[in-house]
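Fold it.
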Amino acid sequence: MTASPSSAPAVHDPETAAPLLSGELLRRLNDRRDGPGWRQLAFHVTVLVTGALLWGAPLAVLPAPVPVALRLTGVLLLGWGLAFGFCAMHECGHRTAFASKGLNDAVAWWAGVLSFYNADFYRRYHQWHHRYTHQPGLDPELEEAPPSSLGAYLLELSGLPWWLGKIRSHLAGLRGDFGARPYIPAEAEETVTRSIRLQFAVYGVLLLASLWHANGALLWFWLLPLAVGQPLLRFVLLAEHGGCSTGCDGLRNTRTTLTLPPLRRLMWQMPFHVEHHLYPSLPFHALAEAHTHLAPRMEHCDRGYLAVHRGFLADPARLALP
């Protein structure tokens, strides 16, 4: 099995292997604590519950007409909470959000259920992404070519390619078919297959309950909001490496985006993405401090996702790989 990215050396220059942060600072920043993880998880759950209540109350509780704006706010919050469960799964998949490995794994798995990922599959997939960041033919995130035209860019933001890719991947996983996926080693195939089958058993129970009560809950409170939330997630994820170098220098092949605190919070601090790639062992709550030390060295540190995407819109070919 491949080594965990959290144990990989934080090196930006493969020739000199020169660390960018001192050992003393790294030891302090690497401190694993449960408190920040629980507070972050509570925030994320609050977004989900608030969205569900605003979206669900007009459907089930309030007899009088409810302003459309209130319902739209609810479905957006619920959709973003579901879609950005990916970020919770990602952070806990690194086993850095909490001090306990078991707690990290449990939160990652359920966050994957909510966001239509599988945590056990993604953890191994993501290890290769860290090992071969943005390198064509090696990074599994580039299995599908990034958009290089305006039409392809808009299609990517819609989330449709993501849905199709997830369905194909999950169906293959349900069969235990991991051919052409070298990041899933033979010894892990049974574990990953069992995890995906268990996840779909959860979906099956929810579907049966939804049909039994004839309320369409799985559609109205999961599928539809998740589809609504996907475009914003695609929007921010496209900025992480889009238009960056395809070399192995972490200061050039990844982008940090300075964004609004609420979005950064919902993303479990993932906008500090250069920092995360250079030092994947750092917990999410340490990335902001690491940024103060690393920012002057970064090639891509942009002020806001709108600024990043204005560049993509001006020249969609920037996203194309060489």
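Residues 1-11, 13-17 have pLDDT under 50 and may be disordered.
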